[in-house]
Amino acid sequence: CSVCGEPNPDYVAPPVAPTEENDGRWIYRDTFEEIGKWTSMGTGTVNVADGKLQVTDDADTIVSAVRTLDKVLTDEVVVEFEVEASELSKNSAVYFAMYGKNAENAEKIAIDVRLFADGIDCYTTTSNKVAGTYVADTVYKIQIVANVTENTYSVFVDGELVAKDVEMRNAVVNLMKLRLWTTTKDLAATVTYDNLKIYYLNKVCAH
User: Fold this and answer.
1) How far is residue 68 from each of residues 55, 92, 179, measured CA to CA in Å?
2) Residue 34, Cα to own-chain centre: how many angstroms?
């Protein structure tokens, strides 16, 4: 499988997911009708209810939902999902991470995006928070455009570009695992995820 066209680092409009079931740009979709291949890491509850993935921790624990992808990603791809948190503050965040393998075949965090009440933090080796206002009990659509070749990514929230060409936390040669979780600093919280989609940014060629 190959992807037509060169990577487009100058996009400012949000990506658009394919609309046809058999579109070659599709990589992975999950509407969370069942738990499937998602597993839990940490202490808390990961389950599927009402067509959503729910991650629940308490005041003293952290729990993550983890899934290794069936396909290793090496092209320019989009990861999008809807997320809603029961608690959100300057200290309490929703986390999204993607892991990949580096040149030595070691697993490393590549993409590390954290949604706080006062902004989006695209964490590298330090905090890189972009100011914004996000509130609990509100659904946000997150889109992350990842460029594995350049080891950068950009973030859209509800169609608005909030971070562009962020350097990945670690240099990787692919992306292969998702991790979804929350840390709520002395608060119990449930975070729900829905309509998770991964697809190629550019058109896929048939060869």
Assistant:
1) 17, 26, 9
2) 19
Q: 107: closest CA among 72, 143, 77, 156?
A: 72
Total residue length of the chain:
207
Question: Letter for the amino acid at 184?
Answer: T
Q: How far apart, in whole angstroms, are the C-alpha atoms of residue 77 and residue 150? A: 12
Q: Which has the closest alpha carbon to 154: 164, 143, 162?
A: 164
Strands annotated E in 50-174: 52-57, 63-73, 76-85, 93-101, 107-116, 119-122, 129-131, 140-147, 152-157, 160-167
Summarize pLDDT for 33-80 with one digit per residue, the tens. 999 999 998 888 899 999 999 998 876 678 899 999 999 999 899 999
Specify the pTM.
0.90
Residue given tokens 């240099």 in the structure block:
171
